[in-house]
Specification:
Layout (H helix, E strand, L loop, with lengths): L3 H12 L1 H11 L7 E11 L3 E8 L4 E8 L15 H17 L17 H21 L3 H5 L4 H7 L4 H13 L1 H26 L4 H14 L1 H11 L1
Antiparallel strand pairs: 1-2, 2-3
Helix pairs in contact: 2-3, 4-8, 4-10, 7-8, 8-9, 8-10, 9-10
Length: 232
C-alpha cells in the first residue's frame, strides 16, 4: 500500500494550487499580492498538521506555514482522526478560505459560446443583428440597396408578415443608431452589475473576462444564463 502522506502531497501540489494559495493567504495572513503563487507547496502532512512552504516577493524570502488541523478553522468543524478525514478537511478549508476572501473555491478558466438551447439560439441571433444595426447606422439604405436585385431574397421577404417588415424599417433602418446605442447601454449595465461581479468572485483571468465581456456586450442576458450555469 502506498504512503497516504505522499499521495496527499502529490495530489494537492499537482492539482490544487489555488487552494494551497488560499490556505497561505487566510491561515498564514499573507497579503496575496506579495505571494509567489506557483511557489506554494505542501512539504509534510500527517494526522496532526499540514506544513506548507511558500515564497514571498516583498520581502524576498521563503517561509513555512505549519498548520495544525485543530487550528484550521472551517465551517464544517471536521476533526482529523484518520487519514480518511483529511480529504474532507482540506475541501472544507478551501471553501472557508475562498469565502473569507469573497471568492468561490474554484477558478473560472474558460469562456463558453452559445449552445443550441433557446437562450443560446437567441445569443447567436444577436451577432447578425449587430452587423445589421451597425451597417444601417452608417447608411439606412445600405442593405436594401445591396439586396435590391437579389431575386431569391426578395421572394423570401414576401412571405414575411407586413408587421415584421414595418418593424424592421422602423427599428432596423430609421432608428438603427438609437436601437444600437440602447442595446450597448443595457448590456454595459449588465456587465457592471451582473457579469463583472460573477467573474470577479470566480477569479476569472483577464483574457477569460475579456471574452465574457465581449459576448455579453453582443448577446445580453443569454451570457448571464451560461455564466450562472457554469459557476453554480
Amino acid at each position: 500500500m502506498s504512503d497516504p502522506s505522499a499521495r496527499i502531497i502529490s495530489h494537492m501540489n499537482r492539482d490544487h494550487q489555488l487552494s494551497l494559495n488560499d490556505y497561505v493567504v487566510v491561515y498564514g495572513t499573507v497579503d496575496s499580492k506579495y505571494l509567489v503563487e506557483d511557489s506554494v507547496h505542501i512539504t509534510k502532512v500527517d494526522l496532526e498538521q499540514i506544513v506548507i512552504e511558500y515564497d514571498l516577493i516583498n520581502p524576498s524570502k521563503t517561509k513555512t506555514l505549519a498548520l495544525y488541523w485543530s487550528d484550521a478553522e472551517e465551517y464544517e468543524k471536521i476533526e482529523v482522526k484518520s487519514w480518511s478525514d483529511i480529504k474532507g478537511k482540506l475541501i472544507a478549508m478551501a471553501k472557508y478560505c475562498a469565502n473569507k476572501q469573497g471568492f468561490e473555491m474554484h477558478k473560472l478558466t474558460k469562456a463558453e459560446w452559445p449552445d443550441l438551447s433557446l437562450s443560446g439560439l437567441f445569443g447567436w441571433s444577436m451577432y447578425p443583428q449587430w452587423m445589421v444595426l451597425i451597417l444601417n447606422s452608417y447608411n439606412p439604405e445600405i442593405l436594401r440597396n445591396l439586396f435590391a436585385n437579389d431575386a431569391l431574397f426578395n421572394r423570401l421577404v414576401k412571405y414575411l408578415p407586413s408587421g415584421a417588415i414595418r418593424f424592421y424599417k422602423y427599428a432596423g433602418e430609421t432608428h438603427a443608431s438609437k436601437v444600437l446605442l440602447t442595446i450597448v447601454v443595457l448590456h454595459l449595465i449588465e456587465i457592471f452589475k451582473e457579469t463583472g461581479p460573477i467573474l470577479k468572485k470566480n477569479r476569472a483571468p483577464g483574457i477569460v473576462r475579456a471574452k465574457w465581456y465581449f459576448m455579453n456586450l453582443i448577446e445580453g442576458f443569454p451570457v448571464l444564463i451560461r455564466l450562472k450555469n457554469l459557476t453554480k
